[in-house]
Design a protein that fits this description.
This protein is α/β, with parallel strands linked by helices and about 550 residues long. The protein has four domains: about 1-60; about 90-220, no CATH class; about 225-325, Rossmann fold, CATH 3.40.50.20; about 355-545, no CATH class. The protein is about 55% helix and about 10% strand. The protein has a five-stranded parallel β-sheet, with helices on both faces. The chain has a two-stranded antiparallel ribbon with strand order 6-7. Helix 10 links the parallel strand 1 and strand 2 (about 250-260).
């Protein structure tokens, strides 16, 4: 009897070891074969193993992780010291390294293509000579070195805006380095070529990165490129974190909870309780976790020491939640030591004088160029409006701007004359929440107006509002006075900056967003403004307008 029990325990241990080997060999991500072979051999060759598990369903997912963790916890009670073994590279790390290698290839191709296109634009269509081909040969080395210096191959650590800012810095450094190297050769160059190469390099690199991120999100939905994650804590914050990671495809797959010394813990729902923080390293070893996500309100100083030790010896990723509003970006924080205590310094949200000048110069230059370059299109739209329906070409409407100052916003007229008088009759059909009014099939909209609104061409006259300082290119949309009268106190914060033609709402869903989310996006922009952020939003606005998503 003792012999049979020992055999059953050994068989279960062999299964766990086989499943653990599968995790380390990429089985959860890439179809590892080791556990399949080992388990099949075990069922065929070990009758006692079949008897041990017969009559019960196979362990999968969280249940299998829980059993492994239970045996690990039991084993950790035995006296002895955990011997550190060489840290294996988790499957997700291998996948990310492969991804970044291919990303480096497309980054290099983008810069080489930018140099070639700029050369053709500036010097005419001709075959590059040997000297220029030598410059092109150096470009991939310079590009990858610059991107590595800007840490552009650790994209899972950054937001899209922060990555875009680093792309601007890296492309600038790459082009300047190539220009300096080309001084030693008779390669023709000019300021126009340098500027064109920079612009094309930024566009091509940004476009390729956008395609990469689209592919990464697609792989997240299929369970690839995800960190198998232990959640440290059992309080409400930890459970909210688990719900977020399970409901959203963010690149994390929660395995279970790890209890701490906190007294406000509760029994978690959904995921299993794997063990205590004192056995964190054993849990990491048994579950094959590649990330530890810490609920900051659930841990004390001793708990943090265990987490840091796991990072140092086991090489897992560590994430710690911060109890700050979601409108604050990571770029606003800076770590600071105060008498041995780690603190986070929050940068001021108000623009400095230099930043205000830079933003205003950005608005004036782009709005002025836009009015000049788009003049033929503006004339054509005005002609179409005049031919379809009688009435003025432009629609002037009172809106609320910076510090609740009212001004007249300009738009191409897209509705019949007297449309505002018909609003009361249509109020019952409003499809928007909050103080907004939106109607997908608004009978007041003309045929030409429907196309103008679909591609937001009706808002082009607002470039004049930007030029004279009433609006900005990027910012919250200017609300109507009656909408402001219905605002709650927290929603009034969006009036602290100049309203804009485009903004986060424009690139995040437009009319499809609920009003509260619409305001939160505006507040996020206000709290985290930067010139790179404006460039990022403008760059994302163009494909959004061409796709005509969320506009009516």
């Amino acid at each position: 009897m003792c012999s049979g029990g020992t055999g059953g325990a050994a068989s279960r241990s062999f299964l766990l070891d086989a499943r653990y080997a599968e995790r380390r060999s990429g089985g959860y991500h890439s179809g590892g074969w080791l556990a399949t072979v080992a388990t099949g051999w075990l069922f065929a060759a070990k009758p006692q193993f079949r008897n041990a598990v017969s009559g019960s369903p196979p362990l999968k997912g969280a249940l299998l992780v829980a059993q492994r963790a239970t045996e690990a916890t039991s084993a950790s009670k035995k006296p002895g010291r955990l011997i550190r073994l060489p840290v294996a590279v988790p499957a997700v790390r291998r996948q990310q390294n492969t991804l970044y290698r291919w990303m480096a290839v497309t980054d290099s191709v983008s810069i080489v293509a930018a140099l070639l296109v700029a050369h053709q634009v500036c010097f005419g269509p001709r075959m590059p000579d040997g000297d220029f081909l030598l410059v092109l040969a150096m470009a991939p080395v310079v590009t990858v070195a610059s991107h590595l210096g800007c840490r552009l191959y650790q994209t899972y650590q950054y937001t899209s805006v922060e990555e875009f800012r680093r792309i601007i810095l890296s492309v600038t450094a790459t082009v300047m380095a190539i220009v300096v190297l080309s001084f030693w050769s008779p390669v023709p160059s000019s300021r126009l070529w340098i500027g064109s190469a920079w612009c094309f390099g930024l566009v091509f690199t940004g476009a390729s990165r956008r395609r990469w991120h689209h592919g990464i999100r697609h792989r997240w939905t299929s369970g690839q490129l995800t960190f198998d994650t232990l959640i440290v804590g059992t309080n409400r914050e930890a459970q909210n974190l688990a719900e977020l990671l399970m409901a959203s495809k963010l690149g994390y797959r929660p395995l279970g909870f790890v209890s701490t010394g906190s007294h406000d813990g509760v029994v978690p729902d959904g995921l299993p309780m794997l063990g205590a923080i004192g056995g964190l390293r054993q849990l990491i070893s048994q579950t094959g976790a590649s990330c530890v996500f810490v609920a900051s309100t659930a841990v004390g100083p001793e708990d943090v020491k265990n987490v840091l030790k796991a990072r140092r010896l086991d090489g897992v990723e560590i994430r710690v939640t911060a109890n700050f509003p979601g409108t604050l970006s990571a770029t606003r924080f800076a770590p600071q030591s105060v008498g041995g205590l780690l603190a986070l310094s929050v940068q001021a949200v108000r623009l400095t004088r230099a930043q205000a000048i830079a933003k205003r110069a950005f608005d004036v230059v782009l709005s002025g160029l836009g009015l000049v370059l788009l003049a033929p299109l503006l004339v054509l739209i005005a002609l179409l409006i005049t031919l379809e329906t009688p009435g003025p070409v432009l629609f002037r409407q009172e809106r609320v701007g910076l510090h609740r100052k009212r001004f007249k916003v300009l738009k191409f007229r897209t509705m019949v004359v007297g449309a505002e008088l018909m609003l009361a009759d249509l109020a019952a059909h409003n499809e928007a929440d909050g103080p907004l009014f939106k109607l997908r099939n608004d009978p007041r909209v003309t045929r030409v107006g429907r196309y103008l609104r679909r591609y937001s061409l009706d808002e082009l006259p607002q470039l004049w509002n930007v030029l004279i300082g009433e609006m900005s290119l990027v910012g919250p949309r200017p609300p109507l006075p009656r909408e402001v009268d219905a605002y709650e106190d927290w929603q009034l914060d969006r009036l602290e900056v100049r309203p804009g033609i485009t903004g986060l709402w424009q690139v995040s869903g437009r009319s499809e967003l609920p009003f509260d989310e619409y305001v939160r996006l505006d507040l996020f922009y206000i709290e985290n403004w930067s010139l790179a952020y404006d460039l990022f939003i403008v760059a994302k606005t163009i494909p959004m307008l061409l796709a005509a998503r969320g506009a009516y």
